[in-house]
Amino acid sequence: MPAEILRMTGIRKEFAGVVALDDVDFRLFPGEVHALMGENGAGKSTLIKVLTGVHGVDAGTVLFAGEPVSFAGPAAAQRGGVSTVYQEVNLCPNLSVAENILLGREPRRFGRIHWSALRRRAVELLARLEVSLDVSAPLGQQSIAVQQLVAIARALDVDARVLVLDEPTSSLDPGEVERLLGVMRSLRAQGMAILFVSHFIDQVLAIADRMTVLRNGKLVGEYTDITARELVAKMIGKDLPVLEGLRGEVRHGEGTLMQASDLGRKGSVAPFSLEISRGSVLGLAGLLGSGRTELARLLFGADHADSGEVRIDDTPVALRSPRVAVSKGIAFCSENRKTEGLIQDLTVRENIILAMQAARGWTRPLSRRRQDEIVARSIELLDIRPADPEARAGDLSGGNQQKVLLARWLITEPKLLILDEPTRGIDVGAKAEIQRLVAELTADGMAVVFISAELEEVLRVSDKVAVLRDRHVVAQLANDSLTPDDIMATIADGGER
Amino acid sequence: MTTLTVSRKRYLPILATLVMLVGAFGFGSARYDGFADSQVVLNLLIDNAFLLVVAAGMTFVILSGGIDLSVGSVVALSTLVSAKLLGHGWPAPVVILVVLVIGASLGLGMGAVIHFFELQPFVVTLAGMFLARGLCYTISVESISITNPFFTYVAQTPISLPGGTHVSIGVVIALVVVAVGVYVLHYTRFGRTVYAVGGSEQSAMLMGLPVGRTKIQIYAVSGFCSALGGLLLAFYTLSGNPLHAIGMELDAIAAVVIGGTVLTGGSGYLLGTVLGVTVLGVIQTLITFDGTLSSWWTRIVIGALLFLFIVLQRLVTRRTR
């Protein structure tokens, strides 16, 4: 076995008295994929940030290629040979694909940027990832999946010896995930050391040579051969809660709440008809870009339909704006919690109160005592951690941010709750909690529209599944003993079975 | 096919400016005798050379997602410093150098404050605007005329062009500034970093680009361009006056926006700014030719155009999203 390229020993990191990492060891060899596993808040992100120099360490050492290092920041780490690709694509959408790959180290001739060489180099780098596209087009025009690959191509251009992939697959559909795993395999074969963080246990088991599990900032252990069930048990510190059998019989609900007929919008979703019943979950399944989010936005009035109508309780409703939708008891949790939902700089309490206050109107402020009551109840109900209403929302882990967002809408007691990718980028434990919560809410009579890229998850929570393909609703299936394969087949044949 | 439409969309705001420029010009030449005379067109450049230089600097700032409100005051300060020092008998080249250094340093200072204290450019450059304007009055409360032979030479020497027309030396300087600006924006790392910062400052930082340094340099460029614009104005008017260039920062911003640069940064072209300045010039010329309209109509038309452009930009960006 070759010498290790990276060894972190006894890493300790505190934030304002809270221990985020406590005596953690981690090592990485060239030519291996090493997965870093753990629940939200286990310390994975902190460990990566310590490695890339975003945070300094309070104790412990980092050896890179045998030398002690302490990078001054991501840029220094990158120059030193440690490149990171983050979950959120951190590139400039206004610039071309080629520039995004090479910005800051463009090939130059006579002191000026050599544009044709730049494009050529970008094409070559992308070819290494088996991607071919028009590198002069603006990055913003590309799908998230392609942007992710562009980010990796950028990371590869430096003489990277360690590639850190922080949740790279959370926005990708199954085909794209396969492609990314393929890219990782070929990079591994070229001798790259890859640190892979993912919440998808099956992906990790499929690709990782070695796994390190963290829990509550402490090292649980390093494993090479482990089953999914054991792995989850290590991560959450107890045996896997029974996710299977979350729902019993298909519920047909208690009467129609919302009825959309021939609702559609040009260039967004082809006209579709749907019925949403009280006390049931409608799942939306389809590949990325199939129109799931667009459909949800129509139901929430965030986009205007240009055909069809919506009836709520058999009364026609013009969903001109989200405001109208909110007044009709519709709530929408956006998939993009960073930019469209949560306000990072406000506290947990302020974030939770936001929608309720908006619904009341600003002239009738909620008293502080009432706010504290409501927030305390939400924090308890959803088990938001840390249980501190005055914590800054942006400091919470992904799963807890999602719960804050959920709490915001739940306290308005909506009749219809639209959840767009509520479990993206959060860990198994939190995922199971959110799924269970959805089941509980519908038991109380709420209608839920549940959107997820993970078919298993859609099937686990939904009573009825609408399948989208290429912006058409191609089938609506009652979820009795449906399997992911059935849905894939439906997507593949476009519902013509 | 898709890339074609995409790039076409990127150029749409500039195309719209061009169409409007041609339209306004066509209207003028149909309506008024002598409007289409080539010297009239060149006068338009002569009268606005200083604005062009200032707007070029402003383009850098706006492309990076910032704003610089101090440019008008820095222009006025530059005219006054020139007039005062020349009055004391300083040689012209030294005066020019001093003025340029003052302008660039003011910009550098504001950029540093914006970067190191993480302050909004709007507030910092607003402070810079008051500061520079106030400094003007400590130098002189009234106009100082310039009699230096070099300045009068530059002011009064026409550069002949074919067809019996001419331009001023100021126009040549302005065009050189634009050419250098285009080169810097499109062929240097600094220029591309300006676009990257405007697209997403956070991303640019995580991509390991020198965001802080670039931001400071951008304001230094703007300060330098303002000082140079001030010199051109001093050539043009042969005077230094604390009342010069009041509200010019807004003209410069208007020219940049009408030229298709998005105010939130990241998208636009310096050549668009040239068109923007020209549109403003054509409107002024139209109103001069009409003769019956008050000069305030220039402002009204500029206001209407600005509205039109920001709406157009919104429509374009919304469709490409």
Automatic annotation (TrEMBL), chain B:
Keyword Phosphoprotein assigned: no
Keywords attached to this entry: Cell membrane, Membrane, Transmembrane, Transmembrane helix
Annotated transmembrane regions: 12-30, 50-82, 94-117, 167-185, 216-237, 295-316
Origin superkingdom: Bacteria
GO molecular function, one term: transmembrane transporter activity
Pfam families xrefs: BPD_transp_2
Primary residence: membrane
GO cellular component, one term: plasma membrane
Localization per Swiss-Prot or TrEMBL: Cell membrane
Membrane topology of the entry: Multi-pass membrane protein
Family matches, as PANTHER family: ABC TRANSPORTER PERMEASE PROTEIN YPHD-RELATED-RELATED, INNER MEMBRANE ABC TRANSPORTER PERMEASE PROTEIN YJFF
Name used for this protein in its record: Sugar ABC transporter permease YjfF
Organism: Solihabitans fulvus
The organism's taxonomic lineage, starting at the top: Bacteria, Bacillati, Actinomycetota, Actinomycetes, Pseudonocardiales
